[in-house]
Amino acid sequence: MVSSLDPALAEVWRGPYLEAVHHGAVAVTGPGGVRLLLGDAASPFLARSALKPMQAVAMLRHGLDLDGAELALAAASHDGEPIHVDGATRILAGAGLSPADLQTTPAFPSRVPLDAWLAAGRGEESIAHNCSGKHSAMLRTCVRAGWRTDAYRDPSHPLQLAIREELAAQTGEDVGDPVVDGCGAPAFPTSLVGLARAFGRIAGATDGPEKLLADAFRAHPEYASGTRRDEAVFHREVPGLVCKAGAEGTLALGLADGTGIGIKVSDGRHRATVPVAVAILAALGHSTATLSELDPEPVLGHGERVGQLVPAAPLVEALRLLG
Fold it and tell me: What is the pTM of this model?
């Protein structure tokens, strides 16, 4: 849960002036237990799409027959690029289904030019929603498991019960009752430390569905997010890393050694998660020139860079414990 007592994680500077401060919480875990907690990392919150890798693992355990790029898409928050729309359509077709079977909220593709889409006579469609890969995989899992497909979003459906059970196993916590996510599927609560623990387990897996999912993300980051997403940069820059963003300023990362990282920015701004993640990775020995320059929302003045987002003092001091 977002707390008014959460410390500052990142600062926005325009020239010599402090223009904004982003507060939040951080959790870093490892195979041996909790390594760092900053802010309220123990209370339940909605990690939203950051839970998709665990949802995909649950689907794999119950018959989902995907790997590679299509498996990465099954756990993606994608941009609706042609590779994503076509991939989701293939996932459905492989189960004898079509985009008409999706119950995803209709949407336009995100972060892509709409001219060609509109010129083709297309409007808001379920297949274009950023969660259509997950929904397509949910439907395919239902077909493989012999479950009804018309009610797959219902929290009492066998699919959602299986996902809830998997989330509890991966986070090491009881999972509370869900609310409705933006795409219409259940959004389950977990703590930030539980989220970090789950990502450490998936990234550090050496076999089973967790490794299958992790390998899909590593090999096909453009399917797990988009061709121009920060997540794709993290995947390419740190060998063995697995990461996934969630709505409202959530970012989770796992490393091949079993380290898990959970970040939640209180005001919901994704721009603050990037410098925080870069600082944590650097403290863990994963610094690169590309990561140090990663800046999704640069501070501009008349089109020129005139400021920067930097880790705030409470985070910098806390990270000394990881050095």
Answer: 0.96
